[in-house]
Amino acid sequence: MLTLPPKVTPATYDRLAEIGAAAEGKALRIAVEGGGCSGFQYAITLDAAQEDDLVLSGGAGQSVVVDPTSLPFLADAVIDFRDELIGARFVIDNPNAASSCGCGTSFAM
Questions:
Q1: Is 12 left (phi over 0), alpha (psi -120 to 50) or beta?
Q2: Where is the signal peptide (predicted)?
Q3: Which of 42, 43, 54, 89 has a Cα at 20 to 30 A from 72?
């Protein structure tokens, strides 16, 4: 079965450029861990890429990385940065999630 990589919006790469992630040798790491109120939760951090990570590169040398264990959970997901009245944050729209919690950081498959 073919696993489609996640998609990253230009707004995500723009935000990474604003905060100078690449200048510090960092990428936006998206990982899926067990836990949260729905069974799985996203871990979003700034971290250096590891040898076995999938690296998604955008403009100005900005990158998003996903470890091999998390990749199947994020197949065809969209990683976005949103700056709204309720706050600015990275958001994952995941078509694989059967349900999610109200805060958007926890999901079930």
A1: alpha
A2: none
A3: 89
Dihedral over alpha carbons 17, 76, 73, 50 (to 10 degrees): -40
What Cα–Cα distance (Å) separates residue 68 from each residue in 13, 72, 73, 74? 21, 8, 10, 10
Which amino acid, residue 38? S
66 domain-assigned: yes
Q: Does a structural domain hold residue 87?
A: yes
Q: DSSP code of 36?
A: S
What domain count does the chain have?
Answer: 1
Domain with 26, as residue range(s), is 7-108
pTM: 0.85
70 is a domain residue: yes
Please write the tens of the pLDDT for every residue from 79-105.
999 998 888 999 999 888 765 655 555
94 touches 107 (CB < 8 A): yes
2 found inside a domain:
no
